[in-house]
């Protein structure tokens, strides 16, 4: 029996099953009974998105009105009717100087999104031009043993996204490298398990802010001689330490609860300790380890924003913080754009892990 | 001297007030080249007995001697076919067998090992499925993989815990013949646990019933004096077969009745009669 990989299978595998329903709709393959399904899986979610945007629009509109009302009232009380009238006109004209500062409407957020992209294109072009201009000079400098000149301009929004992803992956890798081996040792030995238990129970609930401060204290001292920017190091280590607990606990649990039948096989075949771990214990606990890794990645992404903000490490968190401090007329809209980007990337990361997890796990009930 | 010897074996699970003595005073001798079957009801302690012999469990008291030496842990000399197949689901058929062969013959080259794997997978007619994973196989096929895995290690003694229990009659018959073939050809010693008296008579030299637990102990042995190779259809007309079969079944039924008797003595139902519901609604 040959297995073919179809679009349907792949999308279902990745938890994006509604895509194939959409495809069926357009290719006319939709059966009657599928129609209900289509309503439930496509139309209703779409309607809820529209409803969400509608409510948001109305909400922002009324917040805008409250804020405008208040400004006019204030002008009236402080400076008299003429000033109030001027303020009313100023607000109506949409002038930046007197614009009410509140929750931005969906349209404003969309505009900000486009302006952020435009900004990115400008910066990219600028960067490319800079690299071209300095290429010859840099070659010479490298030949002379000097450092190359690098672009030090402002990072664009897209650059910030990639910086954040880099930090999160570095943190995730750190968590993986610490938590999986440690989890295996803890799971294998009841002694280690009881000696580490207090440690896990106490450190697991510690908040990201505290982890950041702890890492900051240590890394600052360790890197005291180097004048490199340690913010990236500090933030990825904090992210890793915050997020590794789910993997640690799940790995230990998976390893200590391997099916007795498999352990008996290992004993009867007289597998050595390494063979036993790599051929029996690990494969059988992979599904649980991956569940842990999935949680770790989503926690890492969630705490990243707060940690970047504290560490002043470039990325989405810092972007949000700077926009908030900066208080420009479209700052609020940009913050909301960042919020959506953070949410969507988090969702995609989750899907990515789910896909890998489906890939490596086997159906336990089928196998025995 | 017996090849495998069990002397005054007792096995208790649990401790203190939770302790149950599953096996009591088990004595058994198996001689080299013999094929012995143990029959017993489910839950009587057959798997426990098997695990004591293959070294997965230690007796609470008494000793298990294999070739005169006390059994300490598992050994490649004693191959095991588990009741529930126990294949590793993340490995293919070939990989499952290869893993065992590699442990049994650490000095052989990869090619030699692969040849052994191919030979035994072919023996259980699974060559077309060699690259499949257990979940893609039927129960019968999985059990054949388990048989191939145990036999490919070429153990001196092979211990089978209800190896064919979950199979349909046809597959069962085929596998019985395959196991008998290998046993006859390579003159190994075999211990078969089964709940099927006919299977025991067809395959074994001796049948020993295990009385129901707790405190299960072995009953009297029944010798099967039917010449090999045996033929199933001919055997049905064999007077000796009929006699032995009836004797064993009678013995097992007697134990069953004893058990029922004990049960009825222990639990006396309260003397109640159902209420007359019909009258209530009138
Ligand atoms: N690890 C264990 N701990 C406690 N009781 C057990 C354990 N294994 C088996 N038993 C009990 O011992 C009895 C015999 O079990 P088992 O040897 O599996 O019987 P069989 O293989 O004949 O069906 C059963 O009552 C079972 O509940
Ligand atoms: Mg059993």
UniProtKB/TrEMBL annotation, chain A:
Q: Where in the cell is it found?
A: Cell membrane
The record's section on Pfam families has: BPD_transp_1
Q: Which CDD domains match?
A: TM_PBP2
Q: What is its main location?
A: membrane
**Keywords of this entry:** Cell membrane, Membrane, Transmembrane, Transmembrane helix, Transport
Q: Does the keyword Hydrolase apply?
A: no
Residue ranges of the TM segments: 168-188, 232-253, 286-311, 331-349
Xref: Gene3D superfamilies: MetI-like
Q: The ABC transmembrane type-1 domain covers which part of the protein?
A: 161-353
Determine the domain of life of the protein's source.
Bacteria
InterPro entries, per the entry:
MetI-like, MetI-like_sf
Membrane topology of the entry: Multi-pass membrane protein
Family according to the record: Belongs to the binding-protein-dependent transport system permease family.
- What name has this protein been given in UniProt? ABC transporter permease
Q: Which organism is it from?
A: Flaviramulus multivorans
From TrEMBL, chain B:
Domain ABC transporter: start-end pairs: 4-237
The molecular function GO annotations come to: ATP binding
**Does the keyword Nucleotide-binding belong to this entry?**
yes
The alphabetical list of record keywords is:
ATP-binding, Nucleotide-binding, Transport
User: CDD domains under this entry?
Assistant: ABC_NrtD_SsuB_transporters
Q: Which PANTHER family match?
A: ALIPHATIC SULFONATES IMPORT ATP-BINDING PROTEIN SSUB, TAURINE IMPORT ATP-BINDING PROTEIN-RELATED
Write the protein's name. ABC transporter ATP-binding protein
